[in-house]
Amino acid sequence: MQLSVEEVKENREEWMPLLLLADPEETMVEKYLHQGIMVAVYGDGEPAGVIIAVPLEGGREWEIKNVAVAPRFWRRGIGTLLIEEVERRLPKEADTLWVGTGGFDSGPFLFYEECGFQFDHVLENFFVDNYPEPIIDEGEQCVDMYYLKKTSFRWG
Ligand SMILES: CC(C)(COP(=O)(O)OP(=O)(O)OC[C@H]1O[C@@H](n2cnc3c(N)ncnc32)[C@H](O)[C@@H]1OP(=O)(O)O)[C@@H](O)C(=O)NCCC(=O)NCCS
């Protein structure tokens, strides 16, 4: 498969269908859609995956708000590539990259661990308090947000 990577600066809304795979509430996606760094990957010319990372207060800490790979491209290294590509583009002063996920030991949680993130803390009731509808992931309702972090992320 031929992979190509592109930083997305304009027309970010075109990626909404893929972004909704990771964060099913459009109003939540719109809050960060136009912030920070957005990178997309194409597989054989087709949209395959996308990631958005935004700076937190102060700019040294960043958070991955969304990473999504189209199902037919799963388990082929594209998610890992997206994380690497975002890390490459972080400013020099960035020293911590956060990511939150809805399930402890879920597929995404294990994926983040594979990418070098370590579990840090839980934000209780995040999904219940912030989403109008229940969020179901792998058959389980998401209640708490599990945050993982990475402090050493220079690739290549
Ligand atoms: C999570 C996601 C981004 C992973 O993308 P991907 O391209 O399949 O990931 P990779 O191929 O780079 O996976 C790297 C490693 O992570 C781990 N991993 C990835 N997906 C996994 C899963 N569902 N279950 C367990 N481990 C998983 C594996 O160790 C994998 O290596 P392997 O395939 O050699 O075993 C993708 O499944 C996805 O988009 N899911 C839907 C959206 C979503 O849940 N996003 C995260 C929101 S918190």
TrEMBL record:
GO terms for molecular function: acyltransferase activity, transferring groups other than amino-acyl groups. It comes from the Bacteria. Pfam families: Acetyltransf_1. Residues 3-138 form the N-acetyltransferase domain. Gene3D superfamilies: 3.40.630.30. SUPFAM superfamilies: Acyl-CoA N-acyltransferases (Nat) (SSF55729). This is GNAT family N-acetyltransferase.
